[in-house]
Amino acid sequence: MTTFERIKQLARKQHISIKKLSTDLGFGESTIYKWKEQEPKGKDLAKVADHFHVSTDYLLGRTDTPQFTRKDERDVQKILTDMTEGLSNDSALSYMKNGGEEIDEEDAELLRASLENVIRQSKLIAKAKFTPKKYRKDNK
Fold first, then answer.
1. CB burial string 13-44: b at 16+ within 10 A, e below
2. Whole-structure pTM over 0.70, yes or no?
3. Quick one: pLDDT at residue 35?
4. Confidence band of 107 (pLDDT split at 50, 70, 90)
5. CA-CA distance, 45 to 29, in Å (whole number)?
6. Contacts of the segment 38-44: beta carbons below 8 A, 24+ positions apart
7. What's the start-to-end Cα distance of the chain, in Å?
8. DSSP string covering the chain, please?
9. Tell me: the pLDDT tens digits for 4-42?
């Protein structure tokens, strides 16, 4: 998905047009439409990200989680890899069925996906909890 498509999707969720978003942010009416063909300026992209409370990395397609940066994505994958390494060995309780046989590939992938979801949620909770109030987008 392109930067323009992500912005369009976010605008649709808030029931506003791209044209209105552009004018609300102080851009020319067609500025965001131009991003179909050219890269946005960093400061303009930051304005859009702040408006929607997402990261610029999300708008650029570097992450699929709106609040995550590329570093957050790397952290999630490292934690997930660390957690799942060695799960197929004989002492890994989480990869064993009754009787001590290893789970099949499909069940292993389901377990991995579940762990990834838990890691992502934990990271989002930690970000909300430990971000100083003055830096929070919602100013709580």
1. eeeeebbebbeeeebeeebbeebeeeebeeeb
2. no
3. 93
4. confident
5. 15
6. 39/3, 40/3
7. 32
8. --HHHHHHHHHHHTT--HHHHHHHTT--TTHHHHTTTSPPPHHHHHHHHHHHT--HHHHTTS-SSTT--HHHHHHHHHHHHHHHTTTTSTT-GGGB-TTSPBPPHHHHHHHHHHHHHHHHHHHHHHHHHHS-GGG-TT--
9. 999 999 999 999 999 999 999 999 988 999 999 999 999
Residue pair 62/73 in contact by the 8 Å Cβ criterion: yes
Query: Tokens 């002492």 identify what position?
Result: 91
